[in-house]
Amino acid sequence: MKLGILITTYNDEDIIVRCLDSIYNQLDEIDFPIYVVCVDDGSDSPLIYPHFDILRTEHRGRSYARIEGVKKILAESCTHFLFLDSDMVLPPGFLKKLKTVIESYDSDGFIIPEVAFSSYNNFWTKVKVFERNLYRVNYCRESGNIEAARLWKVASFPGFIEGLEAFEEIQPTIIGIKNGLKVIKIQEIFIFHDEKKVTFKDLLRKKSTYFSCMVDSEKCSKWDIIKRYYFFRPHLYHKENLKKYVRHPILAIGVVLMYLILTMNFLWISLSRNLNKKKDD
Questions:
Q1: Where do transmembrane segments lie in this chain (predicted)?
Q2: CA geometry: angle at 160 spanning 136 and 271, to 5°?
Q3: pLDDT tens digits, residue range 29-39?
Q4: Helix (H) and strand (E) counts for the chain?
Q5: Which of the chain's termini has less CB crowding within 10 Å, N or C?
């Protein structure tokens, strides 16, 4: 076994170093080779980190950066690879446990639960952290799965879709399941995910960009995305989460409100795009 880890970064040096440190601090605990590449997608200030391979590219977007990183991992003859976002942090002992997971399950892809957190305490940050942690239930089914498998056998990995800058991390999972690959969700390990500060204005702007990309893109199935859209996600109705709604009614109402507003925003973007296309035709 040789593990490759891929991280991409763009103008977030304040948080990417924390992610890289969480990997580096575990290297003495493991007995297998590891290759770590961080692709700097044209940040204004080039990332410097002496312990790992830093690949600097021109700014083209995260999908291109990830594709370049996968090329490096292939060149290093890794058997498995894990891709992370810059705002993720590996908990202590993660890499040691990861090897046990790979040896215990014969699977092409692994969905690893994410534990959301934030140092901020405003309402929408608390709502987003609460909503993100609803995914932690042990649920994985093709019809409703919205989580990305971040750990893959290199030989099985379907690849990232070039130029797709929204929902790009879930596409390998969707494609892999369609092609008959085995993708499972594990509970033995988890990844910390920093939601940072969330304001409704920033959330709406970010999701509007994602929705626009999804509507305009011809590189992914709209149905594959829509059937995993907000209220259609089965994990929301898992008994463990139903108990959370009762314990935290204000946050649960916040999640419903967030979903309703974002759904209206999605419908507005879709309608606007369709009207513009008809005018152009």
A1: 250-269
A2: 80
A3: 999 999 999 99
A4: 9, 10
A5: C
